[in-house]
Amino acid sequence: MKIIKVLEKTELVIVDLEVNLGKEKRNGLTLCVKYNDEYYPLNTAHDGRPILMKKENVIKNYN
User: Fold this and answer.
1) Three-state DSSP class for 63?
2) Distance (Å, whole) CA 34 – CA 59
3) Cα–Cα separations (whole angstroms), residue 7 to 18, 21, 35, 47
4) Please, which residues have CB within 8 angstroms of residue 61's CB and are 6 or more apart in sequence?
5) Cα Rg for the chain, rounded, in angstroms?
6) Beta strands 10-21 and 38-41: pairing type?
7) Among 44, 46, 50, 53, which is most exposed with the fewest C-beta within 10 angstroms?
């Protein structure tokens, strides 16, 4: 394994993330990276599995 590039202007944040589980809504604290004013979750809110920092995983609708 090797580091190719270190992203600048990034910030580690903890968000209170709401997720839909069927008809039920739950929330939980989730570690995210804020990069270019977009939030990338680093794990899932409901079971803690790691998530890749990809554009399709950006959290939308944050005010």
Assistant:
1) coil
2) 10
3) 27, 33, 9, 27
4) none
5) 13
6) unpaired
7) 50
Q: Could you give the maximum distance between any two Cα atoms of the chain, in Å?
A: 43
Strand partners for 2? none
Question: 3-32 pLDDT, tens per residue?
Answer: 999 989 999 999 888 888 889 998 888 889
Q: Which residue has the tokens 């609708």?
A: 61
Under a CB-based contact definition with an 8 Å cutoff, are residues 38 and 58 in contact?
yes
What pTM was estimated for this model as a whole?
0.70
